[in-house]
Design goal:
Bound molecules: zinc ion
Number of strands: 11
Largest sheet: 8 strands, mixed
Strand order of the largest sheet: 6-7-8-9-4-3-10-11
């Protein structure tokens, strides 16, 4: 099965093949800033099953663990569509909201709960971590 994720204006599109290896809700402060929301939700796919087209720009930041984190966004509308961590460069995280599919798989993991907003409850996730996955 192929799915397409798109930025707000539609010029940056990403196509994935098959099912994600994991869907993860992340409450870290960097995801809160990146998304402008109180947590981020990403679907992870092997890089080999992801292709994208359209203009894009990368924002690279260092992580606390000493890696880099690259988020790719649309230069026209600013949607942060996908990202990769230097720690796991073979995996691409795709912003789940960009699939505009309310039936999309729910998170199996909730991470960085130490900075989770108190009212947020990812009860559907089987695994919960105070920081990143250990
Ligand atoms: Zn756009
Ligand atoms: Zn995060």
């Amino acid at each position: 099965m192929q799915r397409i994720a798109s930025c707000s204006c539609g010029s940056l599109k990403l196509t994935v093949d098959g099912e994600p290896t994991a869907v993860v809700a992340c409450h870290c402060l960097a995801c809160q800033r990146r998304t402008g929301s109180v947590f981020g939700v990403g679907a992870y796919f092997p890089r080999t099953r992801v292709s994208f087209s359209g203009p894009s720009r990368d924002y690279v930041r260092p992580t606390d663990a000493g890696h880099t984190f690259t988020s790719t966004f649309c230069p026209s509308c600013g949607t942060s569509l996908f990202w990769a961590s230097g720690k796991s460069p073979d995996l691409i995280g795709v912003a789940v909201g960009a699939f505009v599919d309310p039936e999309f798989a729910s998170p199996v993991r909730s991470v960085w709960e130490e900075s989770k907003h108190g009212w947020v409850d990812i009860g559907v996730a089987a695994q919960h971590f105070p920081k990143g996955r250990t």
